[in-house]
Amino acid sequence: MRVFVTGATGWIGSHTVDELLTAGHQVVGLARTAAAEAALRVKGADSLRGDLDDPGALHRGAEHADAVVHLANKHDWANPAESNRAERAAVETLAEALTGSDRPFVFASGLAAPALGRPLTESDPSPFSGPDAPRGGAENLAFEYAERGVRAIAARFAPTVHGAGDHGFIALLVAAARRTGISGHVGAGTSAWSAVHVHDAVRLVRLGLERAPAGTRLHAVAEEAVSTRDIAESIGRYLNVPVKPVAPEDAVEHFGFLGRFFALDMSASSAVTRAAFGWEPAGPTLAEDLAAGAYAHAGIAGPR
């Protein structure tokens, strides 16, 4: 298949491009810069110049592809409303281009599900709808297009898709521990996050692209529930710093914007995903990645 990938040079996206190329697919990656175009070219992928604010490029990329994988997101934590707006607009543009074609549309989603009191399952719909919701309610919006001939598939990624070179949430926690000399967890640290190694996550993206029917919710989850205290202890062992609780009212000061999320429970099961697609995670655990130095780069200033 000729697959159009947004976020093709990002953390998950770059590994997805590798996975698709290795499996024999052609890839066209959305590229914001000449450097991104060059990085895709070196891998043997084609590029299309544009970004999330260029609906024309998004439409062209989807229109001329056999499948779409949408992984780009602004992740503007200082202005989440803008990220939500851009995500909803991008999903709508891509889905409109695919309408009536029955072509697969795999898009990134998340595992946040307030007040469930249990791990999220694949049968749980997203609680977020409408343009003002997190991610612009994009999961529910995309699934509306399933009735219009789009094979919409939600890839719900664990809050940490970890591995060497990751600059996501775990990297920020490591950086905070370096900065403060304390590996913290919020309160008692009893809330839990799911986790998955990036290589396992992108293999699931490919399997979904190739085989999942419309309306599928894929749970990219290897470890169902790693307590935030366990995460803090793994970071503390790696950095050889003490592990201490951080009061909820001090979380943002200690962790930065991540303090708003680190106390949340974002755990999920992937039992249905595993059974349906024969997906068995094989990568290292989060604790193993931390112990092996996968986050040695986090919080270390680069050359000036």
Automatic annotation (TrEMBL):
<dbReference type="InterPro" id="IPR001509">
    <property type="entry name" value="Epimerase_deHydtase"/>
</dbReference>
<dbReference type="GO" id="GO:0004029">
    <property type="term" value="F:aldehyde dehydrogenase (NAD+) activity"/>
</dbReference>
<dbReference type="GO" id="GO:0005737">
    <property type="term" value="C:cytoplasm"/>
</dbReference>
<feature type="domain" description="NAD-dependent epimerase/dehydratase">
    <location>
        <begin position="3"/>
        <end position="212"/>
    </location>
</feature>
<protein>
    <submittedName>
        <fullName>Nucleoside-diphosphate-sugar epimerase</fullName>
    </submittedName>
</protein>
<dbReference type="InterPro" id="IPR036291">
    <property type="entry name" value="NAD(P)-bd_dom_sf"/>
</dbReference>
<dbReference type="InterPro" id="IPR051783">
    <property type="entry name" value="NAD(P)-dependent_oxidoreduct"/>
</dbReference>
<dbReference type="Pfam" id="PF01370">
    <property type="entry name" value="Epimerase"/>
</dbReference>
